Records
---
Amino acid sequence: MRSFAESLPALEPLSRSTLRTPVDYRGYRELLESWSSLENARVQRIGRSVLGEPLWMVEVGAPKATKVSAVIAGIHPIEWIGIETAFSLARSISKNPSDDRRVCFFPLTNPDGFRKVEANLRDGKRRWVRSNENGVDLNRNWPTHFRASTGLLAGHNASGPSACSEPEVSAIVSTLDRVAVDASIDIALSLHSIGNMILMPWGGIWKSPHAREEHLRVANKLKMRLGNYTVRQVSHWFPGISFAHGMEIDHLHQAYDATSILIECTRGEVGTLRPSAYIDPFRIFNPQNGRERAATIAAALEPFVRGAL
Ligand SMILES: [Zn+2]
């Protein structure tokens, strides 16, 4: 990861750059350098994106531990606060790793999209980026409750032609399947933005998972730690119209029996007294002081990821 990061052009940090609105987030090279400089962490390349960027898993904790937590970030490439939060979590956990649990981090699911967002920031272009390079929403491409929706009608939620058709999703699913051969993935967290929400399965069907009580217990404890967040089952969001087929949290729960939570981190800059933020997709999804907010959110989530909530 380090040598790959070093091969990328060293651009001015986004926090110190001459952008119209500097933001306190790591760009692509800085992000890879930060992940590769974590102590007590094992880095593994697990695949390549549509455009050939490497996909990574970073593992923290006892190598042979049979209890595993999975943390996924950057499925939606403009949701940078989730990506920073994953890094903050990894940094904190790696300083004091557990003896009986491993945490498998997937730091950046959609690197092609992320790079596009970074280029837009540097060029001063206000663009919303949601899909991967094939135009697929990587949170509709997972096997559980998958339903093919492509073309114009699917719009921004295009699922791809079949489950795991996209290399970014397929790499994570096959890696977790391998991990699950001799370990139990009992905790899963996916980090998104926006909306201050704690979401639980199912997204693809109306009924509740059999482990509803445990999900509610965890979600309500997280709500106490996070503050002003709403707890919801994804498919109950807008009754009848908010089914999300092929979501990561459905799959993580169905395939591995994990208690599987999606966090919509922050409300971006919406609600602040900066009207210019309302027409800038990056600032709708992400607060300006990204690293500071990420550290706060990560501290609230850490006991869950450690299996100690
Ligand atoms: Zn998202």
---
Amino acid sequence: MSADTMLEIKNLQKHFGPIRAVEDVSFTVRKGEVLGFLGPNGAGKSTTMKMITGFLAPTAGTATVCGFDVEAQPIEAKKRIGYLPEGAPAYPDMTPAAFLDFVGAIRGFDGAERAKRVDLAVARAQLKGVLHQPIDTLSKGFKRRVGLAQALLHDPEVLILDEPTDGLDPNQKHEVRELIRQIAPEKAIVISTHILEEVDAICARAIVIAKGRVLADGTPEALEKRSRWHYAVSVVTASAEVPRLKALWNGHPAVAAFEAVEGEGGLAMLTAFPRGGVPMLAELGRMAREAGIRIDEIREERGRLDEVFRDITGKAA
Ligand SMILES: Nc1ncnc2c1ncn2[C@@H]1O[C@H](COP(=O)(O)OP(=O)(O)OP(=O)(O)O)[C@@H](O)[C@H]1O
Ligand SMILES: [Mg+2]
């Protein structure tokens, strides 16, 4: 285990009777890393997170937080973990002020120190306006933020956030992502999400799981490279030119397939997909120019994370 590894998961498994929620999940997260934890509904994300945070005992495998085994040394491990569970916080009758004070007490803070910690968590989660309203009566977004404040209160080194932006409006999503970015350098953070743009926005690395197993582990860019859209070239041109362009580009060894979409005003978008992920923008552009075919717009595609995600998880189904 390298010196800056803060979270190490080894072969975690959880069976509920005949239900195999988690089959075999292993990964490590280093200081400063925000790991996106992706997978379709029922993939085992929340169950894995519950085992990491000590809420569920694994059937097999281990989770180690800053060197402390969650099962063997739960007190030391839990001190270093902040956990935002899925859904709303427990204690619906409490106000956020009372709930956070209570969490501070459980975490072992007294007097002025506790008040300071609660204030900071309230500021970070932007809860000032709703501090004295019962949690039960808060909107979904504010409930998530109360959960987030609770997870941050003791300034833990490892944060396990189960769909932190679920139910938030676009501004709130943006604020929570900003907050995660701000605190990330000092922490190891795992966030589960269904939102792929979130992975692009804040995660340096992403793991895709389905049916309780890890199917992919890499940077968002590396995952995008697995998309058939990676290095694809799209052009906007006159519809009438599409057959000529196809015939011309078919002669290029890197071109594997085409897709054309008719637009308005006699225009069309033609996309050429590459064979084996080879860049071809410059050459296709040159071929069209030399053949005298007018092109209004040409661009190289990045690769589409949503498509890769469907592709990877679809194969596991
Ligand atoms: N306490 C439980 N008893 C029985 N089965 C369970 C229990 N908790 C979870 N499961 C099952 O384990 C599987 C994984 O569930 P989990 O909640 O971990 O998925 P998830 O990836 O978080 O899904 P989602 O994206 O919908 O939140 C599902 O089939 C679920 O029904
Ligand atoms: Mg879940």
